[in-house]
Amino acid sequence: MKTTLPHGTLLVIALFYLLLYIFYERKVAFLLFSLLCLSESLPFWNDWLRLFYRYTYDWYSFSIWASTVNYYVLSLLLPAFLLQRFEFSHKYRWSFLLMGMVVISWFLDPFPINRALYMLGGSVIISFIISICALLKKSRGSVLSMIGISCYTLVYLENTLNREGKIIPYTFGFLALILCLLVSLTWQMRQERRSREKVIQDNAQLEANKSRLQAELLKSKIQPHFLMNTLTALMEWFETDPTVGSRFVDALAREFRILSEVADQTLIPISKEIETCRSFMEIMSFQQKTQYRLDVSGFENTDQVPPLLFHTLIENGITHNEYSSDTTTFFLTKKEFKESKRYTLIVPRENIEQDKNVEYESGKTGTGLAYVKARLEESFRGNWSFQHGPCEEGWKTVIITT
Amino acid sequence: MRILIVEDAKTVANRIIRLTREILDTEITDIQCAGSLDEAQDLIKKFPPDLLLLDLNLHGKDGYGLLEDTASQSFHTIIISAYSDQAIRAFEFGVLDFVPKPFSKERLAHAFHRLKDDATPATAVTKFLVIRTCGKTERIDLGNILYVKAAGSYSEIYLNNGKCLTHCKTLHKLSQILPSTFIRTHKSYLINLKYFTQLEKIGDHKYIIELGPSISLPLSRNQLNKFKKLISN
Q1: ∠ at Cα A295 (A293, A298), nearest 5°?
Q2: Closest to B10 (Cβ–Cβ): which among A227, A287, A320?
């Protein structure tokens, strides 16, 4: 009865991980681990059963078969668990190896128990190899499982080669393995919990960023330069030309309607974006000497961009330039490549010679560009680039997303 | 009166022109409008105005550089800006008024009224005078000014360190932008009450004002009662 303790322990662990699998998380590793422990403790419970219920001799051979099958199952469970625990890809290659082992061990010996022992030996070797691979992969907990497998191997060899005087019972070897795997499994759970927490944290951060960008977007429309000049212009039209005033209010309403529509979105259809650009340009055309136009090419209806991406750039362009000609045309083009999309915006400039390019980098432009870059990062996560600089036609901004 | 408007939004500029014409009417001899800081600087050089109406934010550029420059000149500046939170900073330069956008005709008329002699004295928060010497502008803290003396179309600023500087604005124009601690005691003098030590009678109805330890300035007869009342407070 002195081996009740390890077997009892194994049964409790099996039960615990089974419950963990059912109620906590449906992780295959949990189930395999539970079955592994159960399978190891089964022969003992078979012996134990015999103390109370002595089945007849004709059932004895069935008992041997059952025990053999159990060993086979055990032999398959150990490598299967390790493969699952260390998240190996190409599990099917390993399963071919295990199936091969089943066949080979079957033909090596006619006696079921010996077959089982060969099978178990093969299982130990494969488990050893898996542990080495995990070690090479630098998986966390691989050292521990290596130690466990080594203990198990030593006890297995000692038990197999030295059948007369077993110094350490086989079960203790297995128990050492199980304890090591248990610790390694617990580590993995901790690691997973941490990464889950990090994901939650990242999401919260992302959500916060989103709100900030939304606020930024709406702020650009209530910033004094735009709002107060617009209100002043309105006052003027109401006093001098109410018809123009009404048309202007109409354009303004359209602009705000689109803004409230897109403010809380991460990506919007390009047609919406172009609509916001054009409605903004219309508002500015009312207030300035020139008529603004936007020439668009290369876009498809399915294209999506972060809201106010080009709008912000166009707004920057209009704010920082003085146009005296009757019409001013901005050019927005998209080119699609195999793995990337290139958006080009050309803001025309008059008196290029006099202009100092540095003006673009400083002052109020900062918030606009920061907004554009934050939106790109939100939508494309590092897979984007933003470049701008003077060109022949004026000022060129190139955005590439992959 | 020559008026220069610096404003980048077309409709707003039109509004300023229209309202200015309506308010000042025949007083105006010329109205010019500049859409950028560079253009404004050119126009100021070529045709110095009598009044500048300045927007502080032009094409995303900050207009304080121009304000620093114009504050030192002979004409008055009225700021018309969307950023009403910048009023205090603009007033420190000694601008005549700060008109926040959007503005009505009445508000603009109120600003122009400050040009008149009978205008209520400025509740000005002017902090310093900008003085141009040898092509460079220099800010003179009001606390360092003992008194200002009229010198034709200029003014002489006497400082507590014994120096004397020349400002392009007339004494009258300076009196319009300086805070109430500066008192007109004589048609040619504007004194800083901070340095007033005593009032001395030197003959029949003749008084002199002593500033600091060694400066004596005349007090004109028609300012006597007003001044006495002021110092008794």
Answers
A1: 160
A2: A287
The tally of CA atoms less than 13 A away on the side-chain side of residue A343 is: 21
Which residues in chain A are contacts of B103 at CB distance < 8 A? 232, 235
pLDDT of residue A363: 40
Taking CB atoms and an 8 Å cutoff, what residues of chain B touch A287?
9-12
| pLDDT over 90 percentage in chain A | 15
**Which runs of E-coded beta strand occur in chain B?**
2-6, 30-34, 51-54, 57-58, 61-62, 76-81, 97-100, 128-133, 136-141, 145-151, 154-159, 164-167, 182-186, 189-192, 196-203, 206-211, 215-219
CB distance A324 to B48 below 8 Å: no
CA-nearest residue to B13 within chain A is A233
Work out the average pLDDT over A235-250.
91
Lowest mean pLDDT among A163-167, A219-223, A370-374, B20-24: A163-167
pLDDT above 90: percentage of residues in chain B:
17
> What domains sit in chain A, N to C, each tagged with a CATH number?
4-199 (no CATH), 223-401 (3.30.565.10)
* DSSP at B83: -
Residue of B nearest to A364 (CA): B60
Give the residue on A whose Cα is nearest the Cα of B85: A224
Same fold, B2-113 and B140-232: no
Whether A219 has a pLDDT exceeding 80, the answer reads no
Percent composition of chain A: helix, strand, coil (DSSP 3-state, to 5): 70, 10, 20
Contact A236 B62 (CB under 8 A): no
CA distance B168 to chain A (A): 31
In angstroms, the separation between the Cα of residue A321 and the nearest Cα of chain B is: 6
Contacts of A285 in chain B (CB under 8 A): none
| A129-177 pLDDT, tens digit each | 888 888 898 888 888 888 988 888 888 888 777 766 667 777 778 888 8
Task: Please tell me the distance in Å from B39's CA to the nearest CA on chain A.
Answer: 11
- Return the higher-pLDDT residue of A391 and B20: B20
Average predicted confidence (pLDDT) for chain A: 83
Q: Over 90: is that where the pLDDT of B179 sits?
A: no
Query: How many residues are given for chain B?
Result: 233
Domain definitions of chain B by residue range: 2-113, 140-232
Residues in chain A: 402
Give the residue from chain A lying closest to B36, CA to CA.
Answer: A322
**CATH fold of B2-113:** Rossmann fold (3.40.50)
Tell me the mean pLDDT in the region A373-394. 86
B140-232: in CATH 3.30.200.20: no
Q: Is the ipTM of this complex over 0.90?
A: no
**pLDDT over threshold 60, residue A360:** no
Count chain A–chain B contacts defined by CB atoms under 8 A.
71
pLDDT at A232: 92
Q: Which of B36, B82, B84 is the closest to A229 by Cβ?
A: B82
Distance between CA atoms of residues A340 and A338, nearest Å: 6
Cα–Cα distance measured from residue B1 to residue B186, given in angstroms and rounded to the nearest whole number: 27
Would you state the pLDDT for residue B2?
Answer: 92
Q: Please give the pLDDT value at position A242.
A: 92
The two tokens of residue B187 are 């048609």
Tell me the CA end-to-end span of chain B in Å, nearest whole number: 39
| Residue whose C-alpha is closest to residue B33's, from B57, B7, B58 | B7
Contacts of residue A174, defined as CB under 8 A and 6 or more positions apart, other chains included, come to: A6, A10, A40, A152, A155
